[in-house]
Design brief:
Number of helices: 10
Radius of gyration: 19 Å
Helix content: 55-70%
Number of strands: 0
Structural class: mainly alpha
Distance between the termini: 43 Å
Low-confidence stretches: 1-23, 211-233
Strand content: under 5%
CATH superfamily: Tetracycline Repressor, domain 2
CATH class: Mainly Alpha
Largest sheet: none
Mean pLDDT: 82
Shape: globular
Length: 259
């Protein structure tokens, strides 16, 4: 994923603008002026993803984030005003990277149903490799609700635009594009939860020999050194992905296709 994804257009949906943090934190974001500064900021955000994802917002600390990022606490405050601002920026950054991944995947699609297949593949792969984001976005609903709403709305905006274009081209049935977008997002969300998130949680609980409420991050021994699942592992059972796509194809196909 590109380090600058949060400030550049990410395919069909608009990316987070440079004043995104102001909306939810009341402060103006501290934007690095150099490539080296951007790299340091990226390390801090990556470490924040680990810490918030493993410990949750309330148990996470700036000191733990800086320890994992390998920077001094003074350096942290060059780039972020507070733990909460870091959290809000992280939610926005995750959303931008997810949108960039799916937008890149569907760029060569020749029709909407192919775009759905490629987009869902990219979505499941991203979630598999960044499983902590589920906890982060869930925490955002309580800690920074505006950022959580924005996370979903920005995904929906691009989705709606793509669906509307496909409707105009006669590739899919005409219907309420916002409703369709959120239904499709819901399919991806809960299928990923059932087949990607829960197995890791259950595996971690079995390894710990208890219910897993110890701040464990849900890893099962197949992660990379940064705690992210490896792309070469199976992402989703073939029969599950096939069922998802059959359902979507039937639901989106023009009415004439069902006769």
């Amino acid at each position: 994923m590109a380090a600058h994804a949060r400030r550049e257009p990410a395919g069909p949906g608009s990316a987070v603008d440079s004043h995104a943090a102001t909306r939810d934190t009341g402060t103006t974001p501290l934007v690095p002026a150099t490539a080296r500064g951007e790299a340091t900021r990226r390390r801090i955000l990556d470490a924040a993803e680990e810490v918030f994802g493993e410990l949750g917002y309330y148990e996470a600390s700036v000191s733990e984030i800086t320890r994992r990022a390998g920077v001094a606490q003074g350096t942290f405050y060059i780039y972020f005003h507070s733990k909460r601002e870091t959290f809000v920026e992280l939610v926005e950054d995750i959303g931008a990277r997810l949108r960039a991944a799916t937008s890149s995947a569907i760029r060569g699609a020749t029709n909407r149903l192919e775009a759905e297949r490629l987009g869902f593949e990219a979505f499941f792969r991203f979630i598999y490799e960044h499983q902590r984001i589920y906890r982060i976005v869930e925490d955002a609903r309580r800690v920074a609700p505006a950022a959580a709403r924005d996370y979903y709305r920005r995904i929906s905006t691009g989705y709606e635009r793509g669906l509307a274009t496909a409707m105009q081209a006669g590739q899919i049935r005409e219907d309420n594009v916002e409703a369709l977008a959120y239904m499709l997002m819901g399919i991806g969300h809960f299928v990923a939860w059932r087949w990607l998130i829960w197995p890791s949680d259950e595996s971690a609980e079995q390894q710990n020999g208890h219910d897993g409420h110890d701040g464990h991050d849900g890893r099962d021994g197949r992660d990379g050194r940064d705690g992210r699942r490896q792309a070469q592992d199976a992402v989703l059972p073939d029969e599950v992905f096939a069922a998802v796509m059959a359902f979507i194809t039937h639901g989106l196909s023009p009415a004439s296709a069902h006769h």
